Amino acid sequence: MKAIDIIKKKRDGQELSRAEIDFFINEYTAGNMPDYQAAALLMAIYFQKMTKNETVSLTQAIINSGDKINLAEINGIKVDKHSTGGVGDKTTIALAPIVASLGAPVAKMSGRGLGHTGGTLDKLEAIPGFKIDLEKSQFISNVNNHKIAISGQTAKITPADKKLYSLRDVTATVDNISLIASSIMSKKLASGADAIVLDVKTGSGAFMKSLHESFSLAKEMVDIGNAMGKNTVALITDMDQPLGNAVGNSLEVIEAIETLKGNGPADFYELCLELGSQMLILAKIASDEKEAKEMIKSSIENRSALNKLKELIEIQGGDSRVIDDYSLLPQAKYKKEIKLKHTGYVKSINAEFVGRAALALGAGRDTMESKIDLSAGIILNKKVGDKFTENDSIATLFYNDETKFEEAEELIIKAYSLSDDECHPKKLMHGLIVKDDIVRF
Asked: For a tag site, which of 54, 163, 199, 441 has the least CB within 10 Å?
């Protein structure tokens, strides 16, 4: 088998066999195939696309390129949740304790943020002492004894994906549904979950900007998961404005805690209800959405979810006093409110611009080697549909480097679109994709 023959076959629009895809992944991961040949094949895939069978084969080949985590020692049905990334998306910090407090085992492998989208591990590291690198034995023990553990992914999982993504990034072949889906699902499937709930974001702050693209990606990932024996569902959720009000690591931790105290923003609370209900159904804790949502509401009202977060922090070495004392989290030296010399309503908020503003303040990273300022970030004081006057603050910026303020301020002002007429936010939930059905809301 030769690489040039595989490239030519795909260039001409033919379907690659499982053996040919395995050869490509194995040879490229091992360093036996030069970048220029791999790039040529990626470009052929970009233009000719892949069939369902090819996409499943590619996902399996990427999984087989590295270690696979066996969670068989954990009791119960392990349900994982994955978000395609957004601005202000602190969902795991609130959702994992909610689901765990209701008896579903949460064995969560999370990642770090890059660019304007944040990562769960970075946010958790804002909690003093919190350890995100757990040995496998400790990870399993924590889930069996406490129903919850959150850890970073080992570098030995899906090494082919890391190498392929770096090449796609510099060859303009990132935006292909099959390549995106296989990249995401290979990591989820290699992490040992029994079932998967996908949160596919759509809008200005999401990777997929249009509803059509988001539904296509979600369907592709659900098909992959189910084809590989994992019960997989996906929700399409809105990211045309940031989720909640807080953007930035320590600020998002506070907002997640406040949500578990019953004081969270309405959109974030709704997302936790929707995603959590799907997780509880797949874990066979609840029989339907109505029962699941009532269970989630009760876990917040009786503080069992908040207590589970406290327990998570303690078993992973963190200082659980942050639950009631936010001053223990990283604190920014400066904060400044942004005001507009207008009166009216917020028509829209470009989530990507807000994310870039937070990045400018130091809350994100341009490369994986960049150092994050865990205290930097933004609180949005006005969301879509809110009325404001020239004396009202639309946002508060938190920062430590005064030279970074001006760029962030410009981006925040640019993010806000205003109207003289009353406005309403878009619906948060756009659809649900299950094995054999697509439901549009």
From this structure: 441
